[in-house]
Amino acid sequence: MLLLENVSKSYQKNQVINNLTYRFDEDRYCITGPNGSGKTTLLMLAAGLEMVSSGRIILDGAPVYSALAKRRLGISSDKILLPDFLTPQQLLEFHCAQHHRRFPEDLIEMLDFAGQLTTRVSALSLGNLKKISLMLALVHEPEYLLLDEPTTGLDHQSRDWFLDYLDNYPGRIIVTSHEESFTANEYYLRVLLSELNQYGGRVA
What are the chain's domains? Predict the structure, then answer.
């Protein structure tokens, strides 16, 4: 279970998350809300990549900033800047070594990415940046997947494969998206973040 307890996040004088308490204990969630309502920030906080201004975030009893929690999480977001002087192959090799996983030949094939492995990150298109971001989130098969607008920029074939992949994913998924594949999907519990922020958060 992922628990956010009295979480607030501010950037200088701009408060993005306001005293939010929420328990993510279902298998599938889709977080929606207007641009600027804090959806991406929420995922970054939940992954332990940004610090809360106040409150705490717990993953199955452990702080999300702990090494154990980080191994159980996978996140894909355009807000995460990859080292632009490295290649996707170098990034994947490092990530696989950290998590003791084999190189993801299957993901590379299904996302038609083999031709981009030795291209520097700085030279990748937006669509291919999305693909490497997704592979880094998926390669260690985390128990919790945090996906920020995961289909944006994907070509049609990759998008279809990825949606099928998620349908059969054994772990828990929290996604931010305006796409009907998620917002109208009966298997995803829809959460309107702006309403939670407006009323100071609540416990599900």
Answer: 2-81+138-198 (3.40.50.300)
